[in-house]
Design a protein that fits this description.
39% of the residues lie in helices and 19% in strands. A hairpin with a 5-residue loop joins strand 5 and strand 6. By secondary structure, it is of the alpha/beta class. Helix 3 runs parallel beside helix 5 (108-120) and helix 8 crosses helix 9 (261-269). It has helices at residues 9-16, 39-52, 75-85, 99-102, 108-120, 138-171, 219-234, 239-248, 261-269, 310-322, 330-343, 349-352, and strands spanning 22-30, 55-64, 93-96, 124-127, 184-189, 195-199, 211-216, 276-279, 282-283, 291-292, 299-302, 353-360, 363-372. The longest helix is centred in the middle third of the chain and has 34 residues, at 138-171. Among the domains are: 19-155, 3-Layer(aba) Sandwich (Rossmann fold); 218-323, Hect, E3 ligase catalytic domain fold (Alpha-Beta Complex). The strands form 5 sheets. Strands 2-1-3-4 form a 4-stranded parallel β-sheet, sandwiched between helices. Strands 6-5-7 form a 3-stranded antiparallel β-sheet. It has a two-stranded antiparallel ribbon with strand order 8-11. The N and C termini lie far apart (93 Å).
């Protein structure tokens, strides 16, 4: 593959004057967005660019398979900035394929800031395959800002297209990411809807045309799921007691892990067990923090036969809604309290704290009310 770029006058002089090549670094970032940004293509292009301008690459900074949206996790760019600012760079310029490889930052000033840090430390940034020289001229500044806006807009538009595609696939009942759930399995299907095979934990589909659907898990796991609902709703066990009992009986949880309160809660709140796949509860676009969507934005699709009846599922949901703190019995609360006091170097709860209980109207488990006893002498 041949790359061409108009040579500056200063470059022509350095090539023909017999001067030794000037040392430069190169920064390469590769994501999965397009093959033309592979490391091999970037290296070949910049090698040709450097040779034509009497430059020699003495150091490479790489960020393989990293998003250009933030500096986080981009060890290559972080190292480049650090070397430049600390005066450790043995070069005065760094070659970058184009503005998008430097980053697709949604805040355009962020991209400019990182470039300024290098330039202020004496290391200039040269975008090899842009139609402008990064020489600080007004036209260069305008073109560079436009390119940064275009790079950011590309990611924003791509994110929106992906989100719409995921919503469409979810409406058809196809699973869109997420971990494997106890009592449920992932089945791979081909483009014609024919069942292929079950995916194990950590396995992913190999063909872009394949899809993943939910199917009920093994009978023994389904029996445990029904038992958890029965213990919680009918027998009114606490969540911690359910987890403790399952572990004592040697029942293995999801992915071979022991049961705890959060895993039991997840079972009781998961609509898959009444056959519904609920998607779009949360949104996280462009590496931004995860936000919770309003319930009217959730997508709810029937994907398999119920494991438990809707009646018992909604009874569990009602118990959660009536008392958010549901789940800890007296024994577990005392154990947690003792641990907390030990961490705070306080005296033992049995001697300094009184515990009394009251019944919750929807459950037999006790809600603890803890109060410090006064240590003042009697009669004062």
């Amino acid at each position: 593959m041949t790359y061409s770029h108009p040579m500056r006058e200063a470059d022509r002089i350095s090539v023909t004057s017999g001067e030794p090549p000037r040392p430069v670094a190169q920064y390469l970032r590769m994501s999965s967005e397009h093959q033309r940004y592979s490391f091999a293509n970037q290296k070949a292009a910049m090698q040709e660019y450097a040779e034509a301008r009497n430059l020699i690459v003495v150091k490479s900074y790489l960020d393989p398979a990293k998003s250009g949206l933030t500096l986080r996790k981009r060890k290559g760019l972080q190292k480049l900035i650090s070397d430049s600012v600390q005066g450790l760079a043995q070069f005065k310029e760094v070659l970058v394929y184009d503005v998008s490889r430097w980053g697709r930052f949604q805040d355009h000033d962020e991209s400019a800031t990182y470039e300024f840090l290098c330039r202020n430390a004496g290391v200039g940034v040269r975008y090899c395959f842009e139609p402008f020289d990064n020489d600080g001229s007004p036209m260069s500044a305008i073109m560079k800002h436009i390119k940064r806006v275009m790079a950011a807009d590309y990611s924003a538009a791509l994110s929106e297209r992906i989100h719409r595609a995921q919503l469409y696939q979810a409406r058809l009942g196809f699973k869109q990411g997420g971990s494997m759930t106890y009592g449920v399995r992932r089945m791979l299907v081909d483009k014609d809807g024919n069942l292929r095979f079950l995916l194990d934990h950590g396995e992913r589909k190999g063909l872009q045309t394949d899809r993943v659907i939910y199917v009920p898990g093994p009978d023994e796991e389904l029996a445990i799921v029904r038992r958890i609902f029965r213990m919680f709703v009918t027998e009114r066990w606490s969540i911690s007691a359910i987890a403790r009992t399952l572990n004592a009986e040697g029942v293995i949880g999801a992915r071979g892990r022991p049961w705890n309160d959060s895993r039991v809660r997840y079972i009781l709140a998961n609509e898959l067990f009444i056959g519904n796949y609920v998607y779009n509860r949360t949104t996280r676009k462009l590496q931004s923090p995860t936000t919770r969507n309003p319930p009217e934005a959730w997508l709810r699709v029937k994907v398999m036969d119920p494991v438990v009846s809707p009646r018992i599922f909604h009874a569990a949901a009602k118990a959660f809604g009536a008392n958010r703190g549901y789940g800890y019995d007296k024994k577990d609360m005392l154990r947690a309290l003792k641990s907390s006091c030990a961490r705070d170097n306080r005296s033992r709860p049995s001697s300094s704290i009184s515990v009394r209980t009251r019944q919750h109207p929807l459950a037999t488990r006790s809600t603890l009310v803890v109060s410090k006893m006064r240590s003042t002498p009697l009669g004062t």
